[in-house]
């Protein structure tokens, strides 16, 4: 493996700017005067396109600039002070948001999982620890990510079952879709945007990690949760005066299937890597299926790869091995992927 | 006055996209991989350029996406739970943020003013109402906007005096600079970016209202307030993974004086209007000096103008008059301004 | 006026311990084992007695240890994050609780009044300033005190009208009854505990200022607000493990009309003073009617009285006069009142 | 075992009122006028007595009405928004306060332990998960209880070592002393009130569970944490206007060693039970040492005991056994203890 001049980064899916079509939309619309606070026509059209994809006329859609922001606003708007969120211990709201949920007053109850995914059984066991009212918080929302922080994915069937359990137990289901594009674009997993209209109370569609300059679209299915939501956006500092900036991102993403095309590319690049590595016997921390893969190599092998590539060391294992995280994105060139595979094969 | 096909909007200074140079920067940098969370080189260079303007090596600079967000994070990071903010009753944090400051736990003590500006005397009187510890909140921060929500402006001398008063009374001074560009670009008012390094503890530089797609730059002068600030950005959902998006805005704004050029244009357009109207005896709700002017006309005259222009009715007065708000921006074409003046003269 | 050895304090109505009957109840029940967290039989019986007085079987009743605690819990439990409280600017929640309401995330919108009382017209005017959703908070609760912080009182008729207005405008009505005993015990004012069941959503009955060692009883009339209330008590630190301690206070107060007898005494003592002073032409800051009176004398006269009595200077007036506050309580001896009147007459 | 008419409750240590001496103090002081808000002379004397016991002139002492209240105020006053508390997963703040700490904005990081006790090694491991600033909260306070929720105890030596570790790692140490009396009154454990002045930043002394009608005394050792503390008491609804009510409890407890005498009795009664059970081979969930003991019996045996005694089932074990919790208090009669032992021996 020869040293390259510039390291390619597989660290995340937000290392580049945005897809060319979005840039072009920004340029094309730049001088048109529009109303502020997401009343602009681009935001309106983007909302229409998303509702079409969802086959839902009634979903409320709000654009915000980031995922932690989306999470804290949804929780703050929907829970009363004594109510809590249940999340996997790998869930972004539990482990990676500097206390954002607690900052708006709510406990996050963590549940250990094998692969980042919750299910009815795990939640049922968790609920048993909270029957001692009013001395404990009242679990009221289940938070999952799709795909998860470990790259695993929920199918439509799994969501349907989880949502049925939630409704039966007076729990709201909130799906963090920072990487929803990836989840909806895996060949062998049956789930579509229309399923998202039916199997949760609220979710958000990630733009930042799927080709936008910034932006996430919060989608509210449950009618009872829609009232006054925009106040919460404003109160938490999420209502941009130039809302058009985010609206244009989603207008671009939901025109001509761009959103899915970008996610398919990211998934395929990751799959090419995981397939190649599996063929030579490399094991993975979690079964690779989406745009995030977690191969396990020896620390020496990882160190060698680190000379030419940036990535995140995920977990030191025993016996001198570690799992590292490779993320492919809409922008990952196939030629780099091919080189990377060659380089991995060279070090193992 | 003939009806025009498209109404021109003087409603605000965020009706268009961004200045052409910023668009070009976005295009030019789009494919380069960068670190996330504002560690990218564009953000770094933008911070350097701002520090240069401030003649301050030590200022801490953080980019966020909007003004309410900047305000709530600064207050939350800097005050303890029992401490309160003093603001003019027209101040954005008191009147226009859906309870953002209270949402992070702090009372905003409002002070009535003539023109949106606070001064030592007004604050001194206000403090008298808070000597009954611990039954009242403890005033700890003075919040002002420059320019204010009424278009008035603080000079360097006024800030120096106000800051001296604040320091003497253990009060932090925080300046909301959503329209700081305008304040620094009024010919007859002596104040510069370097003054901002000396006469307050913390301030922010508005990008959204001065030619950026989005973004405000929080600047912390006071060393004691710098510790751990980035945690607060993250916790409140303001730390964008693609921080480059905002960094590029400020890189554009602070290259070749663009920030000032845009503000000068906005101020000049507004001045052209106010000069023309003053010449024919029109009165103003607040003395016009920056890019916001508040002429007073009869309701009939305003209605007539409303056929061709959008603007905000600010205040119903007695006797059939109202004050309305005309905002000029970096994007306001001079030809439109000229037409508007003609149209106003036609209706009065 | 001769100097006395010990100054008598008219500063407040919580300078002594509790009424003898309550002490006796404490002694009589001391060794009996009881359940914790207000499940004890004394609390249960006290709740029954209060419901009887209210002629309401369905009111939910919760005991807490103080008024600020009652206020912050009611507001926190009943409002969503973007909703705000409307209160008189003299209202305890606005002016005298160290930001307790803001600390749980809500703005208090203040309304200036003549005598501490709100009415439909004042609230209507206030609401006009909050039609700019979602940039402003959403007014959702009206907070009043009865008697008010200025000693004025709402009659049943006034409450009925105010509540009708509130319901018509989707506003909750919350009555702070720290001095409710006094309000219900003024001969010429028609209002009873049963009226409290009908003309508000929630109120609290003050024990501390009417003869208890401590304790306030929060009463919830509105069924929708009852759900999960006990969680909020626990979360805010108000659910005493020895709930019996407060239950016994209210058991004592609501046995044999003690609650009213104590309030009548306090009112009568205050009336004796105000009648005597009015007879010699003394004016009052607010018309005296309950157990708080605010006579206006010259600063010299007040200084002279201060040699023998403690009281609170309420407001410096112009021309060398001040209003001072005299509070009589369940414990104020008539002989002291008589001496005080003599002493006032001696100095004026 | 014959059925008794009245079940004796070993459920908790707050089933009765208060010790006779405190009742007598309440009676003796009842009619004396005192200043409000803990400025009364009883509170002042109680503070003096506690400082004497601590051999510390400089400790700040504040009385509040309950333990959850003490915990949430200390955390709220001492942490900035991004800072978090580390606690055992059995710790009251993590598991038993309905989200009180999260309600004031802070995450509680839980640590699994064998017996409810934290130590430097456990905390060190925990800190490793929080090195990814600013994406995670910043651990800033260690919370422990002494005795713990499982009845275990920290000696002076253990506290000294823990505090040294905390100081070295910029962590505040807060000790919840709801059952501090018990911890300081175990013959074989070397720890005194004076140690509490030296080995933590802040702690509280439990009155409610050691013979008072109500009340906990927050003690602040660390000078930097003292500033403005009373504001927080007021803001959180903890500053009683009749502060004397709690002051008198502590005046009683700290006169003539009552505080220790009551705790010694509680410990001795519990020891008598655990000794008797250990002699016949009963095992315990946690080694019995203080006034809480957790014997393990078969479910049938426990059911039989339940006919005559109330207690809390702590944990279902495998194989038809459960641990149950027996709490003895200052008020537990030795004769009842003796009967209970006979009854246990009869069922096993």
What's the gist of this structure?
The structure is a homotetramer of 348-residue chains. With 348 residues, chain A is of the alpha/beta class.
- Determine Rg of chain A (CA atoms, Å): 21 Å
Distance between the termini of chain A: 11 Å
Order of helices and strands of chain A: EHHEHEHHEHEHEHHEEHHHEEEHEEEH
Which structural class matches the secondary elements of chain A? Answer: alpha/beta
Tell me the greatest interface.
Answer: A-B, 53 and 53 residues
> How would you state the average pLDDT of chain A, rounded?
97
What is the level-2 CATH architecture name of the largest domain in chain A? 3-Layer(aba) Sandwich
Task: Let me know the largest β-sheet of chain A.
Answer: 7 strands, mixed
The tally of helices of chain A reads: 14
Low-pLDDT regions of chain A: none
Q: What is the chains' assembly state?
A: homotetramer
Q: Mind telling me the CATH superfamily name of the largest domain in chain A?
A: Type I PLP-dependent aspartate aminotransferase-like (Major domain)
**How many β strands of chain A by DSSP?**
14
Strand content bin of chain A: 15-25%
CATH topology of the largest domain in chain A: Aspartate Aminotransferase, domain 2
Indicate how many domains the architecture of chain A comprises: 2
Net shape of chain A: globular
Summarize the amount of helix of chain A as a percent range.
Answer: 25-40%
Q: Class of the largest domain in chain A in CATH?
A: Alpha Beta
Spatial ordering of strands, largest sheet of chain A: 2-8-7-6-5-3-4
